[in-house]
Amino acid sequence: MKQYSEMDKKEMKKELEALRLEYDKYQNMGLNLDMSRGKPCKEQLDLSMEMMDTLYSGADLTCEDGTDCRNYGGLTGIRECKVLMGDMMENNPDNIILYGNSSLNVMYDSISRAMTHGIMGHTPWCKLDHVKFLCPAPGYDRHFKITEYFGIEMIPVKMTPEGPDMDEVEKLVSTDEAIKGIWCVPKYSNPQGYSYSDATVRRFARLKPAAKDFRIFWDNAYCIHHLYDDNQDHIIEILAECKKAGNPDLVYKFASTSKITFPGSGIAALASSLNNLEDIKTQLKNQTIGHDKVNQLRHVRFFKDIHGMVEHMRKHADVIRPKFEAVEEIFKKNLSGLGIGEWTKPNGGYFISFDTLPGCAKEVVARAKKAGVTMTGAGATWPYGKDPQDSNIRVAPTYPSLADLKVAAELFTLCVRIVSLEKLIEGK
Amino acid sequence: MKQYSEMDKKEMKKELEALRLEYDKYQNMGLNLDMSRGKPCKEQLDLSMEMMDTLYSGADLTCEDGTDCRNYGGLTGIRECKVLMGDMMENNPDNIILYGNSSLNVMYDSISRAMTHGIMGHTPWCKLDHVKFLCPAPGYDRHFKITEYFGIEMIPVKMTPEGPDMDEVEKLVSTDEAIKGIWCVPKYSNPQGYSYSDATVRRFARLKPAAKDFRIFWDNAYCIHHLYDDNQDHIIEILAECKKAGNPDLVYKFASTSKITFPGSGIAALASSLNNLEDIKTQLKNQTIGHDKVNQLRHVRFFKDIHGMVEHMRKHADVIRPKFEAVEEIFKKNLSGLGIGEWTKPNGGYFISFDTLPGCAKEVVARAKKAGVTMTGAGATWPYGKDPQDSNIRVAPTYPSLADLKVAAELFTLCVRIVSLEKLIEGK
After folding, report:
1. Which residues in chain B are contacts of A68 at CB distance < 8 A?
2. What residues of chain A lie within 8 A of the CB of B262, using their CB?
3. What is the pLDDT of residues B162-220, one digit of tens each?
4. C-alpha separations of A366 from A334, A371, A374 in Å
5. DSSP 8-class letter at B243
6. Is A277 exposed, middle or buried (0-12, 13-18, 19+ CB in 10 A)?
7. Widest distance between CA atoms in chain B
8. Residue B376, C-beta contacts closer than 8 angstroms, at least 6 positions apart
9. Which of A70, A295, B67, B302 has the highest local Cβ count within 10 Å?
10. How many CB pairs lie under 8 A apart between chains A and B?
11. Rounded to an integer, what distance in angstroms lies between the CA atom of residue B219 and that of residue B221?
12. To the nearest whole angstrom, how far is the Cα of A428 from the nearest Cα of chain B?
């Protein structure tokens, strides 16, 4: 089929008419499908059910150093779980603080602490007139919601397949003292599934921020979340690279087991320099007596070590890989050569990023919704929910069943075609 | 034996000499005992081990409304756990938000949110020049640490067996707009084990604060933590009373299962008016996707209902009641009639409060430490760690074994006698 833009108006209208008939059929199916959030599916959750057996009434809930995990204490978490999370994050256990069930909460908390107490002796951000964050976009909506909630001005930065546009990042960060941080999902980025190139990570580690309390918020959410055995992205470990570059305190790094065991019942962790950790502990000791050590122990007993965790992730991949491939196949089958959309083909993570023709994303999402398929809201991948091109849509293939997903993807491509044609006809 | 103060100097010196010999014996025993923190003992933790069996690989982790507890979602917690915690807190489940493992963290978070965002549309506290809190003293050191960390000025208020001195509270709260809150442990207070009288609770509910964003931080940590079946304190439920008094939004109420199941692996909850909850949810939805629903379900499946929880608390009482009674007996045996100390005799909670002669507490704690018995630091029960009388010491009898506890209590009374005599001799 030829590119839509090369069709004449009559051809377009004919095509549109046929597509609308097809759309009507979907509308009559009473669909209720959800491709909006990066949620694991039931089969994935079932993979961790044996974790529920690792602790039982006869089990010894004492950890290696003799601590009774059931009681109070252990502000920064139990050693063996720091080792496990450290191996997962490629960091020394001494550089890790274990938290509760949500790394998002740790990020929120890190911003909140900077607002009220400042970072390592610097002025609390709430005492400053302007605080700004760089937001590589498209990016993760929940990151943007946190900075928006705190009234931090968000500056979009262009994302490329190599990571954020580092020329722009370096220029902004080195000249504007009000810029206090940047949101990064460095591996299998949300929503594109891009992984930062070695050059990008090295340039991050060598940033010379005007603000001495500038921090990179490095959300390594998908560090071991590969789709393939033989085709895995690898990124340079940022803490080590910062240390080498003489910038040891530049990064807060976050991760969790939310998409490894149970979302909401996993372990979150923060890795950073010892200086940063000391600074954070000043808060932490006033904030809690300690996080859930029993759940930390449960995770260690289940995985035993990082090898167990990696093997576990292969099972996740086996469940979700066919879903990513099905979406890719349907996108290719229905959209290739039409010149009305582009999409990413990640090696891991939870998302595919789709770009429509400019000005079509909102309408595509609305059409899909009307036929019973929920997508992430158009614009959500941009700060303040404002996609200047109105073109980016995040596709989350993991949660629906393969059968449902295929229907949803077919409908989605149909909506893309209809909305694109309408747009093109309007422009003729 | 006659009161120490009625002895002449010679009698005192003779008594002191004998006590010092006894103290030397303790020093040679190489003791290492801890009466410092309100930690459950191993036997208490063992009471909840069967909770580890309630969820297992074959269990259905779906809750009553069909939610899969393993997955993301459920911002404010699962319904059946709200019912359980609501029954425990004597509140409607609709007035409850479930949190993670630590009510201390919820209190910290409530202050932090007020600092950065204000309460229900009022100016964020971080934008004000002065923020003050009333601190009934002696009180809970970790409360005071939170307000100190946020630079909130703490004003001690006198504690009585009926609760805080309400004349003082009413006067201060109604005249000073900078006073934004008060810390309360209304039932089996930390450290005295006092429970607020009906009159006190009613006066709290009828406060007319100058500050519209004044909140009572009602830490009902020991709501069902009785020592006796037949001698239980009861306090008026504060949310209902505030509603009756036309002050529905005046209170944040906190509780947790930390001293019911496992400290650090329990469920924390906040109860408040729907207005306050709406205000809090504005933050919560940016802060997390939800707390640990699997652990919420685990608790519900273990207790089934509030009756199960109450029966469980009777087992706790059976373990710790003999400890409270042993301490009381030793205090009575060694100190009665000497006029050098007073102590409380609570019906529940985790502490006994001891008052030495003025100026003796620090030295008593130091002496005990030197012989291997750790007490809560003298002064800890006051804001900024400053007990103006240097007389209050918190005694925590739950953690040591009964045998150890008896040794520790004997040594403690010995230290009280020695230090008191030294003080009295000095003063003659």
Report:
1. 42, 45
2. 70-71, 294
3. 999 999 999 999 999 999 999 999 999 999 999 999 999 999 999 999 999 999 999 99
4. 19, 9, 9
5. H
6. middle
7. 78
8. B35, B36, B37, B141, B191, B365, B393, B394, B395, B396
9. A295
10. 167
11. 5
12. 43
Residues of chain A with pLDDT under 70: none
Q: Do B45 and A263 touch (CB under 8 A)?
A: no
Burial class, B245, CB count within 10 angstroms (exposed 0-12 / middle 13-18 / buried 19+): middle
A51 found inside a domain: no
- pLDDT tens, position by position, A256-274: 999 999 999 999 999 999 9
DSSP state of B206: T
Is A357 contained in some domain?
Answer: yes
State how many domains chain A has.
2
Q: What is the CA radius of gyration of chain A?
A: 23
Between CA A100 and CA A117 the distance in angstroms is: 22
Domain co-membership, A292 together with A363: no
The pLDDT tens digits for B34-53 are 999 899 999 999 999 999 99
Q: List chain A residues with CB under 8 Å of B263.
A: 70-72, 289
Per-residue pLDDT tens digits for B356-381: 999 999 999 999 999 999 999 999 99
Predicted confidence (pLDDT) per residue in B236-292, tens digit: 999 999 999 999 999 999 999 999 999 999 999 999 999 999 999 999 999 999 999
Q: Is residue B417 part of a domain?
A: yes
Residues B314 and B298 in one domain: no
Question: Is there a single domain that holds both residue B298 and residue B320?
Answer: no
Segments forming the whole domain that contains residue A96: 64-304
Q: Is the dihedral of CA A169, A174, A179, A180 positive or negative?
A: positive
CA–CA separation, A334 and A342 (whole Å) = 12
Q: Are residues B299 and B316 in the same domain?
A: no
Cβ contact, residue pair A292, B101, below 8 Å:
yes
Burial A65-104 (b: 16+ CB within 10 A, else e): eebbbbbbebebbbbbbbbbbbbbbbbebebbbbbbbbbb
Q: CA-CA distance, A73 to A230, in Å (whole number)?
A: 43
Task: Look up residue B212 and give its amino acid.
Answer: K
Give residue A318's pLDDT: 98
Chosen domain end from B304, B320, B351 = B304
Residue A195 maps to a domain: yes
Of A53, A100, A291, the CB nearest to B57: A53
CATH code, A162: 3.40.640.10
Beta bridge partners of B34: B374
Kindly report the number of other CB atoms within 10 A of residue B162's CB atom: 15
| Pair (B290, B338) in one structural domain | no
Last residue within a domain, chosen from B282, B304, B326:
B304
Among the partner-chain residues A69, A104, A150, the one whose CB lies closest to the CB of B116 is A150
ipTM of the assembly?
0.97
Amino acid type, A204: F
- Full DSSP string of B104-132: HHHHHHHHHHHHHH-STTSPPGGGSS--E
Chain B residues with CB under 8 Å of A258 CB are 72
A75-116 pLDDT, tens per residue? 999 999 999 999 999 999 999 999 999 999 999 999 999 999
Residue type, A185: V
Pick from B55, B68, B71, B384 the residue to mutate for testing the A interface (most A CBs within 10 Å): B71
Decide if B59 contacts A52 (C-beta within 8 A).
yes
- Same domain for A29 and A76, yes or no, is no
Indicate whether B242 and B325 sit together in one domain: no
Q: How far is A115 from chain B (nearest CA, A)?
A: 7
Q: What is the CATH number of the domain that holds B357?
A: 3.90.1150.10
Query: What confidence score (pLDDT) does residue B58 get?
Result: 97
User: Based on the domain organization, do A264 and A289 belong to the same domain?
Assistant: yes
Residue A407: closest CA among A343, A323, A290: A323
